[in-house]
């Protein structure tokens, strides 16, 4: 049986991926900052697979390494890492963007992903196998108005994904990124700092992706035969053509 560590498992894409992996018999290490949600998930999913939870902030490098080093023996071999934790903070032009928002996006989406990866890659190298899925975004392929620093953070994820592919290939480790377009999760609620009305308008008038759609694709990617590595994948809702064109009410 395989074991997967999923960051950002308390909501959205990460949470749906936990459910989908459980259906496929993949044991789970679920990570996030909200212990109540982690405990609830553990209670539900441990009827099907073994579940361990780790409550830490990916920005806190000491905590990242301490938590991953503390894994019990039965969870210490990690076959799959889903680097999913992340968010946008704000949607402002570069001239008025807030330093706190910029720090949050670069610290979580880029440095947090790197810390978690650094804690796990040595295990995969010694196993001579492993699979890292990096959750990027269409914002990592294109830059859109007011997206500036969020787009920069996701362009960094795209570059890190490619760098991991090059450096880890010699160890038999699979690496790939999935870059979604608009997925209805708590993403916009976080971006707009709890302004749920504004968040809802992002998904008004068209059928957005659901977190289950991305979880289904992640599961497809990790269940390919070992000689198949899906390296890079952009996924849109049908109504979305690129990062700025969404055809509403058609
Ligand atoms: P959600 O807001 O629903 O989920 C974000 C997850 O990240 C939560 O589980 C949250 O857990 C975790 N997280 C956030 N900050 C931290 C932190 N500092 N430390 C640890 N965990 C953290 O959003 P999505 O599911 O949509 O986002 C998941 C990923 O998908 C992100 O990387 C996002 O950029 C990407 N994405 C999303 C798209 C969308 O349209 N929704 C499109 C393209 C990419 P907790 O708060 O408990 O810590
Ligand atoms: C999330 C999708 O278009 O809001 O990464 O940047 S978008």
Could you walk me through the main structural features you see in this protein, from its secondary elements to its overall organization?
- This protein is α/β, with parallel strands linked by helices.
- The chain has eight helices and seven strands, in the order βαβαβαβαβαβαααβ.
- It has helices at 12-23, 35-45, 61-69, 99-127, 148-168, 187-191, 196-202, 211-222, and strands spanning 3-6, 27-32, 51-55, 80-83, 130-135, 173-180, 232-235.
- Helix 1 packs across helix 8, helix 3 runs parallel beside helix 4 and helix 4 (99-127) packs parallel to helix 5 (148-168).
- It is globular.
- The model has no long low-confidence stretch (mean pLDDT 98).
- The protein binds NADPH dihydro-nicotinamide-adenine-dinucleotide phosphate and 2-hydroxyethylsulfonic acid.
- Residues 137-139, 147, 182, 243 line the site of 2-hydroxyethylsulfonic acid.
Determine the strand fraction and express it as a percent band: 5-15%
- Name the ligand types: NADPH dihydro-nicotinamide-adenine-dinucleotide phosphate, 2-hydroxyethylsulfonic acid
Q: Strand pairing plus helix content: what structural class?
A: alpha/beta
Mean pLDDT: 98
Family: Belongs to the short-chain dehydrogenases/reductases (SDR) family.
Pfam family, one: adh_short
Keywords: Oxidoreductase
Protein name: SDR family NAD(P)-dependent oxidoreductase
